[in-house]
Design goal:
Elements lengths: L1 E2 L4 E2 L7 H8 L16 H18 L7
Antiparallel strand pairs: 1-2
Helix pairs in contact: 1-2
Length: 65
C-alpha cells in the first residue's frame, strides 16, 4: 500500500469487481473515457487482472490502456 495525506493506493484485487463493473458498464459514466464500456463482469475482471499484473511488475499503480 502507498499512502500520502491525500491518497491511498492499494493493490488491485478481484474483490472490487462488482463495484468497478457498475462504473465501467454505465453508459453515462463511460461516455468520455478512452476505454470501452464493459458489457460483462469478465471485461472488468480482465481489466483488474491487467492492473494486478502491472502492480506486480512495478510495485505500484495501475496501467491504463
Amino acid at each position: 500500500m502507498l499512502m500520502t495525506k491525500r491518497l491511498i493506493m492499494v493493490k488491485p484485487d478481484l474483490k472490487y469487481a462488482d463495484e468497478l463493473f457498475n462504473i465501467h458498464s454505465d453508459l453515462i459514466a463511460t461516455q468520455f473515457t478512452l476505454l470501452t464500456r464493459h458489457l460483462t463482469i469478465e471485461d472488468t475482471n480482465q481489466m483488474i487482472r491487467n492492473w494486478i499484473r502491472y502492480w506486480d511488475e512495478n510495485n505500484y499503480g495501475i496501467l491504463f490502456l
